[in-house]
Predict the structure.
Amino acid sequence: MLEPDCASGPSCGDARLITGILEAIVDLELIGDYGYEIVKLTGDLNHKPPSEVTAQVAEITEKVRHLLSSAVESWRNRDRAQALSLRPQAAPIRDECERLYSTLSQSVSAPEDGAALVDLMLVCKHLERILRHTVSVAEQAAEAAPLSEAA
């Protein structure tokens, strides 16, 4: 018995969609876990870190949130181009996270400042992980999107 070519048949599109949804669910669950950890870390900050540091964290967080929103939107619209556009947008944000992490790690000097800065370092790492899973969700949306008629 010959197996059907699964590159373009209707059942293949359904299979790509279901597989993509299942994989995206796992990534979204992990994003939620990291988000919860960020809430716990920032809720337990006993010492207030410098405002410029919190402003940088907030700025990076907003960029990550925007990409996650775009990834979910690419699923909603089954928009392949939008989904594929997210990986290049993620690279500069990841670089910002790494620079902030490096700055924070060099700033940890006094024990009273150290705990808050270490918590913010963990927040940076969680934001990077959320970003990585966001790109994965977007790429799964691209794979599950219907193939264009012109292809």
About this structure: The two ends are 28 Å apart (CA to CA). The chain is about 80% helix and 0% strand. The mean pLDDT is 86. Residues 10-43 form the longest helix (34 residues).
